[in-house]
Amino acid sequence: MKRFIIRLGVCLEALLLGACAVYRPLPLDTRATAPGAVADITIDARAMALAPRHHVFDPSHGLDMTDVAMLAVTNDPQLKLARDERGIAAAQAFAAGLLPDPVLDVSRAFPTSGPAEASAYGLELAYDINALLPHSLAKRAAVDSTRAVNLNLLWMEWQVVGASRRLFIRVWYGERMLALARAEVRRLAQHHAALVQAQRHGDAPSAAVDADRVRLQSVRSLRDGIERRALHARQGLNALLGLSPRARFKLKGTTRMLGASAAAIGRALDALPQRRPDLLALQAGYRSEDARYRQAVWRQFPAIDIGFTRARGTDRVSTRGFNVALTLPIFNRNRGNIAIEKATRLALRDEYTVRLVDARSGVERILQEERLLSRRRGQLAKDVDAAARTLDALHAGLRRGDVSQAVELKIASNCFAQRLALLSAEETMREQQVALQTLLGGGRRARLTVD
């Protein structure tokens, strides 16, 4: 028997050593820095679902909206952390799928007094049956939990795509509004310099010069505000792309996006539970929690340990047998865990309902705002065209001496304000289109038109 125990110990030790994981160090990178240029990032456009077919990623000629979305999905720091969480969830699902290990108990006793013919030993192999019965439920819960993590990651990617498009729009319109404001400042500065020169010759009153200076300062303040806003948008876009704040790149193309008909939006709303990744993730999370609740119900029954024994006493009498250990469900009965899992399942159910209602309400709010913005944009476009025609006529009259420069200056300032308002309205409309596509779950496959 002694040889048997030694051989058994050697075999078990070899088996355990062969199945053990090997430690591998993973040192921290204390010199990590953000890429300083888009060219430092490698992207495989063919492997990305959001890229149109045959799309070529070439940052040397500038980035369009699709390029920016691809960069964001590839290099966004928060998405990288979320992908690490996906690896953790996959490892947890793997762990849940493993069967519980049996327990081997070996003992040896040596007599120290009294009559004894030999040393005693005991050998027991036991298994926790209660851990085996709900194993399928635990595995199902882990699989659904992993699916929920993957779907949440997909939803994060959709939101990152939407955020990159909104920032693209802000930078794109910010640069155009800034160019318009700078041109207006140059025009007013030239006019003010001429007015100051006229005052020196006694041809312009001081009140007119002071009023013109106030107008110039006001437009300069407006320009500075637009410049700060454009800078913040550019910095936000760089941060989303995982680039250094100093990184510069040119944007190309347009912000115009393909709209959807009312019928298509209605169909998308009806299909939200089957297409929005966050809703699908909540469904998977609910199924996972339902399996955990059933698992907790299973564990209210008595825990059963079954073992087989072999032993020998000091009188050399050998025995074989079995033992069964039961946990008597008198006080605990796993009622606390059952209540926790039941309440958690109810919370997930309510969260899903609230998220679905909120998604549909969000779409309705955007559609109502789009109608108002569309009317405002149309009226502003007409006003800008009318002001431009009036300004052209005033320029001709000014050259002939039929119109005063003060009238021309006032009309030009009104035209500038209307053009700025038109750009702002168009920017808001484009951002609303992006928000609508994201809410409808079309953030990754939306097609963009490029000039």
Task: Give a written overview of the molecule.
The chain is α+β, with helices and mostly antiparallel strands and 451 residues long. It has one domain (64-109, 120-439): Outer membrane efflux proteins (OEP) (Up-down Bundle). 64% of the residues lie in helices and 8% in strands. The chain is built from 11 helices and 4 strands, in the order αααββααααααββαα. The model is unreliable at 443-451 (pLDDT under 50).
Give a concise summary.
This protein is of the alpha+beta class and 451 residues long. Helices cover 64% and strands 8% of the residues. A hairpin with a 5-residue loop joins strand 3 (304-312) and strand 4.
What distinguishing features does this structure have?
alpha+beta, 4-stranded antiparallel beta sheet, 11 helices, elongated, disordered C terminus
| Strand tally | 4
The CATH superfamily title: Outer membrane efflux proteins (OEP)
Major beta sheet summary: 4 strands, antiparallel
Rounded to the nearest angstrom, the distance between the terminal CA atoms is 86 Å
